[in-house]
Amino acid sequence: MNLRKLILRRSLEILLIFFVILTILFLLFHLAPGDPVSRMVEPGMTAEDAEMLISQLGLDQPLWLQYLYYIKNFFAGNFGISFHYGQPVINIIGMRLPNTILLFTTSVFLSALAGVFWGKIVAWYKGRPVDTGVTILSLVCHTLFLPWIALLFIWIFAYRVGWFPLNGMITPELWLDPSTGFFAKAADIGHHMLLPLLTLFIIHVGEYLLIMRSSMLETLNEDYILTARAKGLSEKRIRNRHAAPNAYLPVVTNVGLSLAFSINGGALTETVFSWPGIGRELIFAVSNNDYPLAMACFLFISLVVLVANLVVDVVYAYLDPRIRY
User: What pTM, to 2 d.p., does this model score?
Assistant: First the structure.
């Protein structure tokens, strides 16, 4: 199977899976307890007005017809109006998404770079003190409870020492000042981002390091490494030019999936640090029965995860031609 056929087959599989996800979400939210209209009904609204609202939302239609409207609206980009904000859901996601991408893309790439670098080093020195020490430290970091370490950092570095803001993404007074320039605003965002970025880095760097170490150890046992040594190549060249590139494949897979799942898994981090992203918005929507916003967030997260899987499969097949057959 060539690369083009692989992409086509995986794309069709993803479309089918996403259609199943659309159907399951529709049924789950319609079977969930509670009345979505009650979130929009004002105390002074009459019964006639409530019935008109139900009709406008299409909730008086048969379930199968509501499902068809649901599918049609999704492909038209119409996700409805948020019950809480009173704005189109697509606008809310558009405002929150860049914040999530900024924080989690930066953390994933920094963690991956550090993990890959140290992973290949400790694998090369397997069994020595540096390998034992770094591996134990990585295991400790990887098993840390994220909300605990986040709250600990806030208490030490934000509350006790005062080096970082307690929460949020910007300083409102600074941004409301007309004289504040672009670089000052960017520096303010960076200042707010450092603490959650450090938290995510510590949590994830151990994961990438352990994956790279394990893959590197497996690669070092291959015959072509022995051949490279027999040719008289330097140890540094063998490690960096021959062993490491072939050990990157599992890390590539993990990075691609981490970028996708961070949008969902980052809900805890965004909530603790009050970072205005998709994850925090999802928790808010579910807690407040904002069904249109919650459904759109779930669908968006599902779509990102599926596309990330497709991209990872393609990259993996490109790096390792054996995957295509």
Answer: 0.77
